[in-house]
Structures are given as C-alpha cells and as structure tokens.
Amino acid sequence: MLNSQVNNQQTTSNNCGDCELCTQNIDNRRVRINSKEIAAIEAIIDSHIMIEKNQVVYEAGATFQNLYTVHSGMFKSVFLTQQGDERIVDVFIPGQVMGFDGIHEGKYKTTVKAVSSGSYCVIPFYPLQELSMKHRDIQTRLMKMMSEKIIQFEITNSEYNAQQKLVSFIQNVSDLYLSRGFSANQFPFQVSQRDLANYLGLAEETLSRIFTKLKKNDILSLADQQITIIDMPKFLQVLE
Q1: What is the pLDDT of residues 187-231, one digit of tens each?
Q2: pLDDT tens digits for 73-85?
Q3: Using alpha carbons only, what angle is made at residue 93 by residues 88 and 94, rounded to the nearest 5 degrees?
C-alpha cells in the first residue's frame, strides 16, 4: 500500500530505472544490473509514482513499511526539533534511496517531502528483506547503501568550514549526476538556499555570501535552479 499522504498520484511503467539498488558503479558510472535478482526486485516495486512540490511521501511517526527510490525531481527529509523548528536531515536526487531512518525502530524518524515535482518508486521492505536472504548480492548492496549514509553524515558533521561544507555537498551531487551519465559540471539544483543553509547548519546570509564569493572567483555559479561548476580543479581545491 502506498502512503495515504500523497494524493492524485499516478503510476507509470513497471521498470524501476537506475536506482542504487538495481545498478552498480563501474568507472564512475551507474550501470544497470541484468540478473534474476533484479527481476525479482522489480516484481515487488510500484514504479514511477508522480508527486507535486511540497507533497509528502511519508511522515515522521508513520509505521515503517517501505523504502523509496527517487526516479525524478528532488526530495528532502525533515525532522522537527523539540522547539518545533524544521531541520533538514537529507536531500535526495534521482537514483537515491529514501526511508532507511525507519528501519531501527519500525517508525520513520523524518518526514520526506518533494522539493519539486517528480516521481518515485516504492519498495516494500519486508519482501525485499526476504529476497536479500535468498540473494546475497541484494543484501550486500543494501549494506553498502546504509554504510554510505553513515559516511555522508560524518562528512556533513565534520570540521569543514562553511565554504567546504557547501562545496562537499555540491561535489556529492555532481558525482551522483555524473554516475548516471549526466554532466558533472552543470546540473539541476532545485533546493532553495534556505533549505540548503538549514541542511548544512549555516545561516542563510552566510550561504549567500559563499555563493557570491565562488562566483566572483569563477569557481561556481547558481542561477535558474541550476549549478554550473566553472572551474573543476579550483572547485576541488576548496576541500584541500
């Protein structure tokens, strides 16, 4: 069953596309795996469910049942603090898996919303778990994805300065687009500066100044919801 929070949804196709679960990374490119294991996963997936901006995929506190993969658009997971403030925990782009936060206690810890119109796929977790016990490759990929989430959290909460936090995040998004055959230097970036500042733990004014500085130095620009990395070597040097 799909979550009732999403209204007017439409489902197209029964092919899950190029998500992390159904692909492997070869020479920095996501390559689709053609195997009986992937065919078994596709058999349990609800694919390409359409969603509009600000609609909810799942809410914090809801019973954990599914993982979700982004097919198109951009999504964010948010957590409400005790003070009632919304804290952005993660941002997801096509191919990435959402919902791991529900595994530990059987309830989702965050609420996931669409940053833009897009689509996603639903993977029922317990049937997937049964498949992973039969097919070790599925189990291995699930473990790798969860491990990458831990590493990403550690980097986000490292001792990087404000500029390095931004560049590290954009580099991650750039690598993800490159792995799916798109340009690493120019790609959609639909998350607002307010949401991005929230996610990185920065003041919005600080983030704006960093973008201005990077553009002035001919390193990076943000315009019309699109990132352009003007000088990749200089961009990467920011992290050194």
Answers
A1: 999 899 999 999 998 999 999 999 999 999 999 999 999 999 999
A2: 999 999 988 887 8
A3: 150
3-state secondary structure the chain: CCCCCCCCCCECCCCCCCCCCCEEEECCEEEECCCHHHHHHHCCCEEEEEECCCCEEECCCCECCEEEEEEECCEEEEEECCCCCEEEEEEECCCCEECHHHCCCCECCCEEEECCCEEEEEEEHHHHHHHHHHCHHHHHHHHHHHHHHHHHHHHHCCCCCHHHHHHHHHHHHHHHHHHCCCCCCEEECCCCHHHHHHHHCCCHHHHHHHHHHHHHCCCEEEECCEEEECCHHHHHHCCC
What pLDDT does 17 receive?
Answer: 53
Look-up: residue for tokens 């996603």? Answer: 120
Residue predicted with more confidence, 180 or 25:
180
CA gap 175, 143 in Å, rounded: 20
- How far apart CA 9 and CA 51 sit, in angstroms, is 6
Confidence bin at 45 (pLDDT 50/70/90): confident
Rounded Cα–Cα distance for residues 140 and 117 (Å): 32
